[in-house]
Write a structure and sequence with these properties.
Blueprint lengths: L1 H30 L6 H4 L3 E7 L5 H12 L5 E7 L6 H10 L3 E5 L4 H4 L9 H14 L4 E4 L5 E2 L2 H6 L5 E3 L2 E2 L6 E7 L2 E6 L15 E4 H5 L13 H7 L10 E2 H5 L4 E2 L14 H4 L4 H4 L7
Parallel strand pairs: 1-2, 1-4, 2-3, 6-11, 7-12
Antiparallel strand pairs: 4-10, 5-12, 6-10, 7-8, 8-9
Helix pairs in contact: 3-4
The chain binds 2-acetamido-2-deoxy-beta-D-glucopyranose (5 copies).
Length: 291
């Protein structure tokens, strides 16, 4: 009898203890913060990419697009210098699957007539700024041309830009790199094979700007001035003191963006339709820029 009684007592204690532990454990779980997905926590990135029709256009957009696919909470603003939307560009962007907006921004006629260098990509980038002014409230924007090479870690670094951030760009001019010159942690000038009287002799791929900072400068935009686009835009962000510029890529000691340029490809020769009119080559023809 006594044995049965003590078994019953131990069982009661065991069950009671287990219940208390379970209740405590549930309470503990309910106190844990629910993990937020990365894309909610991280500030948004707006990537402004000018593009125009040429033999290598779809190849460049494909390469850049799959780079951007590794980056969360990003909106890709693809802006084409054209009068009509290109079904092939839209097809390519849809295939890649990076969230995007596609706009047109033809270069004004007066600049098309320029005999020498044309201010390419300016109307596109200004259109991107217009989108940001109208639709973005926080985060950071960056001008990413479609022909450059980007290490994706630069996107995670630029995401937290408070005003303007800068970093080196490889393969620019005969110096091989364009970079702020840093001495004792401060910008002491700029290293670039072509200074050209610029206050900010930097490459388009070498800086990012906070959306809030842009909103505080309602007149900031890019000038139609070949060679002076970056400088003109950064100057239009005044007041901007060099001491306020945030240095990325480990205080400008690493190259995470490269100003690669694709070899200019000739347009493809016309397809001989009488020979190939009933073959797959007719379909492939759509992807090529023909003479
Ligand atoms: C857009 O249209 C204008 C006027 O018709 C023309 O001059 C210009 O070349 C066109 N632009 C492009 C990129 O096709
Ligand atoms: C703002 O975003 C909407 C929705 O995507 C778009 O239709 C509109 O064109 C954008 N505004 C500007 C100025 O780009
Ligand atoms: C960059 O330089 C600053 C100032 O010298 C220093 O405080 C900081 O730790 C450096 N950051 C990196 C990533 O090297
Ligand atoms: C930039 O800021 C530094 C430190 O705050 C100051 O000494 C300098 O005068 C400023 N330069 C300009 C052009 O405002
Ligand atoms: C197209 O191919 C046909 C048949 O081979 C040939 O007779 C014709 O000259 C070709 N046309 C051109 C433009 O090359």
């Amino acid at each position: 009898m006594a044995v049965a009684k003590s078994i019953k007592m131990y069982l009661t204690i065991f069950v009671a203890t287990t219940c208390i532990y379970m209740v405590l454990y549930q309470y503990h779980l309910s106190r844990q913060p629910i993990p937020q997905p990365e894309y909610i926590v991280k500030p948004p990135l707006y990537i402004i990419t000018p593009t125009f029709r040429r033999a290598e256009q779809l190849a460049e957009l494909t390469r850049l697009g799959y780079t951007l696919k590794h980056v969360v909470n990003l909106l890709w603003l693809v802006i084409e210098d054209a009068n009509q939307t290109s079904p092939l560009v839209i097809h390519t962007l849809n295939r890649i699957g990076v969230p995007y907006e596609y706009f047109l921004a033809p270069m004004p006629e007066e600049y098309k007539k320029a005999k020498k260098t044309k201010p390419r990509g300016v109307s596109n980038r200004n259109r991107g700024l217009e989108y940001i002014r109208a639709n973005a409230t926080s985060g950071v924007f960056y001008f990413a041309d479609d022909d450059n090479t980007y290490d994706i870690s630069i996107f995670e670094q630029m995401r937290y830009t408070k005003k303007v951030s800068m970093w080196p760009v490889g393969l620019v001019t005969q110096f091989g790199v364009s970079s702020p010159i840093i001495r004792e942690g401060k910008i002491k000038g700029f290293y670039d094979g072509w200074i050209g009287g610029r206050k900010f002799p930097v490459d388009m791929a070498g800086f990012a700007v906070s959306v809030k900072f842009l909103h505080e400068r309602p007149n900031a935009k890019m000038p139609f001035k070949p060679g002076y686009e970056e400088d003109g835009f950064l100057k239009s962000l005044a007041p901007l003191n060099l001491t306020e510029i945030e240095l990325l890529a480990s205080n400008c000691t690493e190259i995470l963006t490269w100003h690669t340029q694709t070899k200019k490809n000739a347009n493809a020769a016309a397809l001989n339709v009488s020979t190939y009119g009933d073959t797959n080559l007719v379909e492939l023809n759509k992807f090529l820029v023909r003479t």
